[in-house]
Amino acid sequence: MSEDTKQSDQDLADEWAAALEDQGDNDSAEDPWAAALEEQAEAESSAAQASPAPMDKLADEGKPRSEVNMDMVLDIPVTISMEIGRTRISIRNLLQLSQGSVVELDRLAGEPMDVLVNDTLIAHGEVVVVNDKFGIRLTDVISAAERIKKLR
């Protein structure tokens, strides 16, 4: 082949390539589904190529994820309360209460009190007096597994 023939073949190939490229752009511009499918395919192929890091190994400011979460949790304020017992009474009986009235509770004398954190039972204990202040000595702590089971 001569030099002119090779050049004309190359020019023709370039023209075809440009025409096909233009046609591909027009098809995707006219057909939004084709463009969306192409975009999705590109996203899936790039996601497949990326190797995910293990979630438990991710770090924030040089700390493992579990330590970061624990630091955030440790500063959250909670309400702790002790419950001697409960009872249900009608509004009529409630309005009749006065100084010296006795309200019967559902607990027996000497039975342990409930220790609640944000209204969730975490332990049982007994009342103690330390330096003229009431306190509670924990006698039975509910396991974390049991507390989580009760949340569900």
UniProtKB/TrEMBL annotation:
This is Flagellar motor switch protein FliN. GO terms for molecular function: cytoskeletal motor activity. Belongs to the FliN/MopA/SpaO family. Residues 1-66 are annotated as: Disordered. GO terms for cellular component: bacterial-type flagellum basal body; plasma membrane. It comes from Methylophaga muralis. Signal peptide: none annotated. Keywords: Bacterial flagellum, Cell membrane, Cell projection, Chemotaxis, Cilium, Flagellar rotation, Flagellum, Membrane. Pfam families: FliMN_C. GO terms for biological process: bacterial-type flagellum-dependent cell motility; chemotaxis.
